[in-house]
Amino acid sequence: MESIHPSVNEMHERVKEDGINSVLDRFDEQNSRCKFCEQGISCQLCSMGPCRITSNAQSGVCGIDAAGMVIRNLVHLNMLGTEAYTYHAIEAAKTLKATAEGKTPFEIKDKKKLIWFAEQLGIGTKGKDIKEIAVEVAEFAIRDLSSHEPSKIVKALAPEKRKEVWEELDIMPDGVFQELLTVGSSSMTNVDSDYVSLAKKAMRMGIVTCLGAQVVIETIHDILFGTPKPHDSYVDLGIIDPDYVNIAVNGHEPFVGAALIKLAEKEEIQEKAKKAGAKGLRIIGSIETGQELIQRFETEILAGLTGNWITQEYVLATGAIDVFAVDMNCTLPTLAEYQKYGVKIVPVSKLVRLKGIEEGFDYQPENVEEIAMKLIDMAVENFKERRQKIEPYVPERVQSVTAGFSTEAILEALGGGPEVLINAIKNGDIKGVVALVSCTTLRNSPHDYHTVRIAEELIKRDILVLSMGCGNAALQVAGLTSLEAIDMAGERLQEVCRALGIPPVLSFGTCTDTGRLALLVKAIADYLGVDIPQLPIAATAPEYMEQKATIDAIFAVAYGVTTHVSPIPPVTGSPEVVKLLTEDVEKLTGGKILVEEDPVKAAELIEDVIIEKRVALGI
Ligand code: SF4
Ligand code: SF4
Q1: What is the mean predicted confidence (pLDDT) over 58-87?
Q2: Which one, of 37, 74, 88, lies nearest residue 202 by Cα?
Q3: Please, what CATH class does the domain formed by 400-617 belong to?
Q4: Ligand 1, atom 5: closest residue by C-alpha
C-alpha cells in the first residue's frame, strides 16, 4: 500500500531500505480479513463465545440476533470515542481553572470568547473579574459533564428545533458520564438486545459528546490560546530542518505544545540550542496537536505540520527530530523502534505508554512548564548526539496552506455574518457545504487517496468543503486548502473564492471540532429559520479509522445531517441495522448514513442530497 503524498512514499522507501517495518507494510501483511468481523457479526463478550452469526446459527449462544450483535459492537466503539473526548474536555477545563488561578504559564487570551461562553451557560458576568468567570466556567463544565441530570450545556447550545425532535425521540442526553454508564451497562451480555433501543442510546451519547464535551474542549482552547484566524502556515515533511533542535508534538491536546512554544520564544532557549551547535530550536506539529497549534500560533518557532497519523513513522525516519512528545490518542505502538533514527520518544500524558519507552511525563496543568523545560533540555542534549550519529534525510516538499478558519473567521471572511454565505448558497454560487471530518486509513485506498479525490470532486461541483481531522491534513498536504486550489473548483465557486480571497477547502480544524462545526450549522439554520435537515449541507468521513470518528458520525445523524462514510462500517451482517442507519433513521432525525466506496460516486450522491434540499427550500 502506498500514499497519495510523494514525500511519504519517499520516506517509505528509506525505511524499507533500512529493513524497518512501517504502517504501509504492516497493512499488506494483514492480507484478507475475517468476514464475520468485517460484517460486525462476531462477539466475544462472554465465556460462551466467541460466537458468530452463520447460516446455521442465527444468534449467539445467549440468543442475541445479528442486529443486536452488530449494534452492540458499534456502540462499544462509540463509547471509546466518547471517553477520549471527555477525558480531553476534563483536562481542558482543569487547565482553564488552573490558568485563572495563576498556576500555568497560559493566559486568558480570548476574553470575549470566555464571556460569550459564560453567557451561553447562564453564568452571570457583570462586575466579575475575568479570572473569576474562567473558574466558574471550568467548574460548570466539569459539573455538567459529570451530571446525572439533563446536560445544561446541550440545552444551552442545541438548536431549538433539534431539541423538540430529540425530546420527542427521548434522546435529550444527561451529562456525558451518565450517558456512558447507560450505554456501557446496556451493552453488556444479556441486557439491552433491542437494536433500535441501543441505537437511540448511542445517539443520546453522541449528542452530549459533540455539543457537551467537544464544544467545551475547543471553546477552552480558544479562550486560552486565541480563536483561530486565517493565516499562512506550512505542511509536509519538508518543513523539518535537521540543523535545528526539533521537538515534534503529536496527539490531540495542545497544552504541552503551547508551553513549548512560549518557552522556545525566549532568547535564552534559542541560545541554549545554538550553543549545542544548532541553528536554534523549533516546534514541529504532528497530527491533531500540530493542527491545534498551527491554527492558532503564527510564529517562526512553529515550523508547521508534518501530516496525519500515517506519516508518524516517516517523520521519525528523517533522522531530524530530537524529541517526539506524545499525548492522548493516535500514537503508533512501534515508535520505540524508530529511536534508532536518533529521536527520543517521550509520552506527556498518563494515557500513553509504549513498550520499550521508559521515560514519560503525566500532564497536569500545574506542571506543564516544567515538562516543557525538561523536553527542551532533553532535545538540546539529544541534538548533539543525533547530529554526530545520524545522517538526516528529509524530503524537500513544503506546501503552503491557509490555516485557521474557525466559525468566527469564516463568518468574518464572508462579510461579518452568515448573510454573505447564505446569499451565495441561495443564488447557487455555492451549491452547498460539506463538512469533511475524517481520519485516514489504508483500508480501501492508498493513504489519503479517497479524501483528496472526494474533496476535488466536491469543489468541482461548486460545493464548499470545510475540513477537519486527519482528513484536513490530507487536503492541506495535497494543496487543496491553499489559494492555488481555487482553479480546481467549479466556475461559480471559483468566483466566490476569488472575491473573498479564500480557498475552496477551508481548513476548519481537528477531529475534535465537530462540536464547533455544529454551532456554525446552527447559526445558519437559525438565520434562515429552518431545521438542520433542511439545509443544503452534508458531512463526509471518506477515511474514517478509529472510535472518535464513529461517535462523530452517530452525532451527525442525530443532528439531522446526511453523512457519507467509507470504508463500509462493520454493520453489514444485519440488514435491519443497515436499513435503520441508511433509511429509517432519516424519518426520525432527518439525518442518515450514506455508504459509498467510490469517491466520485460518493461526491455525486452527496451532490444529489444537496440538490434535493435546495429544491425543497425552493432555491
Ligand atoms: S454475549 Fe452472547 S453472543 Fe456474545 S459471546 Fe456471549 S453468548 Fe456469544
Ligand atoms: S482524525 Fe482520527 S486518526 Fe486522525 S488524529 Fe483524529 S482520531 Fe486520530
Answers
A1: 98
A2: 74
A3: alpha beta
A4: 49
